[in-house]
Amino acid sequence: NSSESHNCAKSILTSDRLQIVVTLSEFFNETWEAANCANCLKNNSEGLSNSTEEFLDLFNKSLTCFEHNLQGQATDLSPNNYTEVCKNCNETYTKLNDLYNHLQRMNRQGGESAHSAHLCIDVEDAMNITRKLWSRTFNCSLPCSDTVPVIAVSSFILFLPIVFYLSSFLHSKQKKRILILPKRIQSNANLVNIQEKYS
């Protein structure tokens, strides 16, 4: 009955003592907000955003690559021997990691979903799973892109003391040693003459 819609909703939703419909509705709304689910959707919530679909596609490719290369190494799967996984899946994992970092930057500025703060829980959990597999399980690592600048700065700092002491040595005046002759009586003959005068 549309004329008494408020009373109708009140009688249906709060008719039982536990108010189970209201409680469940609040629970699902809080879970949706806490998980940032809206950040995976388009503005009008018609479906997943393009970036989320791209991420999930790369995530699936990464897991497929891990699985495929593990099957190839089935004969020798010692805990530290995952070189094939690291070598063959490096490109896929790097793309996934770069995309995740890009999505984080975009999301802080309010990306496709127009919601800020964190990415949705599905994307964050997927990246956490992949990073754990990559670093802990397979013992793989990405080469550090800052290696050259770090080495350059470290070398510069190490050579600073050498440059300082060398420049101070070259530019300071070298003091020559000057011998100071003591003032002494020049000869014994003069001393005898002085004694003779007073005697």
| Cα separation of the termini | 151 Å
Sheet with most strands: none
Helix % is 55-70%
Q: Bin the strand percentage.
A: under 5%
User: How many distinct beta strands?
Assistant: 0
Name the structural class. mainly alpha
Please tell me the overall pLDDT: 79
Assembly level: single chain
Unreliable spans = none
Order of helices and strands, N to C?
Answer: HHHHHHHH
Gross morphology is: elongated
Rg, nearest Å: 41 Å
How many helices in DSSP terms? 8
Question: What does this entry look like structurally?
Answer:
This protein is mostly helical. It has eight helices and no strands. The longest helix has 25 residues. It holds the Pfam family OSTMP1. It comes from Notiomystis cincta.
Write the layout of secondary structure elements.
Blueprint lengths: L4 H9 L6 H15 L15 H23 L10 H6 L1 H19 L12 H17 L9 H25 L16 H11 L1
Concise synopsis of the structure shown:
This protein is mainly alpha-helical and 199 residues long. The chain has eight helices and no strands.
